[in-house]
Amino acid sequence: MSWPLPAEPAKRLALAFGYPYAVPEESYLLRNGRAVALPANTDFAGRIAVLAHGSNRSPKQLARKFPNGEIPVTHGTLRDHAVVYAACLTRYGACPSLLRHLPGASARLSITWLTQQQLQFMHRTEGAYGFGRLQADFEVEAGAQPQELHLYHGRPGCLTIGADAVALHAVTQDAGHLPRLSQRDALTHIHRLWDCSSSLESFLLAMIDATDERHRLRARLEGSAISNPLPGFHGLVPEALD
User: Fold this and answer.
1) What is the C-alpha separation between 242 and 127, in angstroms, rounded?
2) Among 49, 52, 168, 211, whose Cα sits 20 to 30 Å from the Cα of 58?
3) Which domain of life is it from (predicted)?
4) Is residue 240's pLDDT more than 70?
5) 158 vs 132, 167, 173, 178, 225, CA distance in Å?
6) How many angstroms separate the CA atoms of 231 and 96, rounded?
7) Residue 237: per-residue pLDDT
């Protein structure tokens, strides 16, 4: 069972448009659903380092999944990669992120340090992503240097505009030549591709309510998507279910 969606349409739309949500400038500790300063004596032993490039960087999203307990979240820079939009919608109506290998690019991302129990629950919340290890150049800003870096990597290809993948404007990154869009602009682009005569808001609410429609939309988007193999990524467990 994943985290529950709000019933109110306005709150559902806020989830869709707000992705990937605000991230504190400094590394932090999620403690019982609230972000607090990361203690200097934080113990990372026994925790799994999972690279976060989308909403899992944000305390708001992590708190929806983990309202109790503690999760250290540390920031750093990933070299030769950019954060782009995936050719799909989440069950809460957002266009999620993918990591794309792009020599010369860099992105400021985060590590969520999860216990084994937290990791097992995280698997159940990650939709169309598979879990594995990533060999890549990650420079930490604070906290421990991970011995192994893990990642949720998406099955869908990259959303395209023209012939290019599209970088997330909300992520601090050097995405090279890639165009950059806000979440609202990315959703507007998808809405237009769907040839929907309703408003963007009505379109999103309908997609949130209809799993089959989301799957049909994903199939259409994947028809023009860019495939996204990720060098250095080695899958460990089967992909989670939508």
Assistant:
1) 4
2) 211
3) Bacteria
4) no
5) 19, 10, 17, 12, 5
6) 20
7) 60
Give CA–CA dist 188/183, Å, rounded. Answer: 9
Within a domain: 242: no
Domain that holds residue 100: 9-226
**Position 1 confidence tier, pLDDT thresholds 50, 70, 90:** very low
Give me the DSSP letters along 189-231.
HHHHHTT--S-HHHHHHHHHH-HHHHHHHHHHHHHSPBP---T
89, 90, 192, 239 from 196: Cα distances, Å: 15, 18, 7, 30
Does this model's pTM top 0.70? My answer is yes
DSSP one-letter code for 42: -
Give me the helices (H) in the chain, please: 9-18, 59-65, 116-125, 183-193, 200-209, 211-223
Query: What pLDDT is recorded for position 236?
Result: 85
Chain mean pLDDT for the chain = 93
Exposed e or buried b for every residue in 220-232, given b needs 16+ CB within 10 A?
Answer: ebbeebbebebee
What confidence tier does 98 reach under pLDDT thresholds 50, 70, 90?
Answer: very high
21 in any annotated domain: yes
CATH number assigned to the domain comprising residue 210: 3.10.490.10
Residue 136 makes CB contacts below 8 A (sequence gap 6+) with 78, 79, 80, 81, 149, 232
Altogether, the residues listed in the chain come to a count of: 242
Rg (CA), the chain: 17
Whether 106 maps to a domain, the answer reads: yes
Domain membership of residue 153 (yes or no) is yes
pLDDT of residue 162: 85
